[in-house]
Design goal:
Pfam family, one: ABM
Domain ABM: 44-134
Number of strands: 4
Shape: elongated
Enzyme class: oxidoreductase
Radius of gyration: 26 Å
EC number: 1.-.-.-
Structural class: alpha+beta
Keywords: Monooxygenase, Oxidoreductase
């Protein structure tokens, strides 16, 4: 009888330990998901709508790719760059830019590679519209 009670007691202790572990795991998951959500809320997301001189489009695209590559490689706060052009009018370029926060964007526009890009394309860009947007939803296949 005593061994049975000891066995039941040990099983209850293991169940309590398991319950403690589950509660701690849940709390950590909640904490990290809140941090991830707050990081996303702090992100700065911008669309740059650019009309480029069609005669200089190849030079513009080259300068843009160079700047984007440098920004992603060198700046931890530059998270995403996508540049697309209108199929019917390739000189109409839209860039999706995502920064960790506004401070990362402010740092980005002071970098040598960004200043070089702006100087290089100043006579190529016919118009520029910057639109700050909020992310509603995102879906992405895993890499």
């Amino acid at each position: 009888m005593m061994k049975t009670l000891q066995s039941i007691y040990k099983m209850q202790i293991r169940q309590i330990d398991l319950l403690k572990f589950i509660v701690i795991l849940f709390m950590l998951t909640l904490l990290f998901s809140k941090n991830a959500m707050s990081q996303k809320k702090n992100q700065m997301i911008r669309l740059a709508k650019i009309k480029v001189d069609p005669l200089q489009l190849d030079k513009y695209n080259s300068a843009l790719k160079e700047q984007m590559t440098a920004a992603i490689r060198l700046e931890p706060g530059v998270l995403t760059y996508y540049a697309v052009s209108d199929k019917n009018n390739p000189s109409h370029v839209t860039i999706l830019e995502i920064y960790a926060d506004t401070a990362a964007y402010q740092k980005h526009i002071t970098t040598a590679h960004f200043k070089k890009y702006k100087e290089t394309v100043k006579d190529m860009v016919k118009s520029l519209e910057l639109v700050d947007v909020d992310l509603i939803a995102a879906a992405k296949k895993p890499d």
